[in-house]
Amino acid sequence: MDAFEPTPRDQxxxxxxxxxxxxxxxxxxxxxxxxxxxxxxxxLAECGAWGVNLHDNDLVPFGASAxxxxxxxxxxxxxxxxxxxxxxxxTTNLFSHPVFKDxxxxxxxxxxxAFALRKTMDAIDLGVELGAKMFVFWGGREGTxxxxxxxxxxxxxxxxxxxxxxxxxxxxxxxxxRFALEAKPNEPRCDIYxxxxxxxxxxxxxxxxxxxxxxxxEVAHESMAGLxxxxxxxxxxxxxxxFHIDLNAQRIGRYDQDLRFGSEDTKQAFLLxxxxxxxxxxxxxxxxxxxxxxxxxxxxxQGVWDFARGCMRTYKIxxxxxxxxxxxxxxxxxxxxxxxxxxxxxxxxxxxxxxAAALRAADIDIDVVARRGLGxxxxxxxxxxxxxxxxx
Length: 392
Ligand code: DIG
Ligand code: MN
Ligand code: MN
Hints:
This protein is of the alpha/beta class.
């Protein structure tokens, strides 16, 4: 087995909707047959994945009877048992059925908001039954085309009411479950509320049970907003709120492409993996490495498994490159912290009048500092050479 062969220890996971994507797009019909969830589980295990995630209706068709639901869930549990796969995360489809055309939790019609809560409670029950410890909320329809349709402040308030209610539902049932909120700026709506991970981090601070709630940033979504995904993930990690992550690839300025991980902006994928793996010295992300992506529409089923293997393999190759980069003595010298025994004590640990006076009295020759070269060209060139395999 080569060094980049995935193992369950890597905690790679895929949604049923990713490897089960039949290749439909807004301009064309499916190019692949629908694959049964039990086969998806077996094939993912064969590829070396650890976990499989699902929306409620990826497994239990909308409107299925209780008997049908129990039979389907029973078969799925058996497939999990046979394959050794786990279900780390579950979520609710609040975007496919036409009833959600004006949103779910933020819809103007209380009947829609009530139905969305009921559907989510059922999906939470299903996720817990399958062993999920994380529940993702992606508000794909929580947005507008005709912006005058509601006061955007009421949308935020309705979202807060829904998440507060569902946190209490989890507590009332004694479930070991946390929530991860996933942002996206647009598509399928012209504008989606709570558009970026930054918006979500503030929103979480306004919740009654904020300790239960974190974020699930997605590469493609922050990139669609023109933002640095790595910086958004870093802020979430620094706040202790990176509860889950959706890995894929995206070309800037395009619709949500959900491409194979690392297949577009390799430099940013490298910097992201370096951050998550902590090879640069910071804390390591310990949650699932979830690929919310799907194969090109051109692919047959074999191509889907090539896609899945490619996501995991690229992640492991980048992790190895990041470890080599941060072990490189020239890199360590270039990014070593600059120490100043006089100024360092003044810069952390809060304010005091003494510190203010000392800052005013400090001898800082800003012209000398301004002339100092930082060596970042050399640093970035070394990184590129590690990435391109010209330096190890
Ligand atoms: C889209 O990026 C969303 C849905 O696929 C799902 O609800 C969520 C979970 O990763 N991501
Ligand atoms: Mn996406
Ligand atoms: Mn996603």
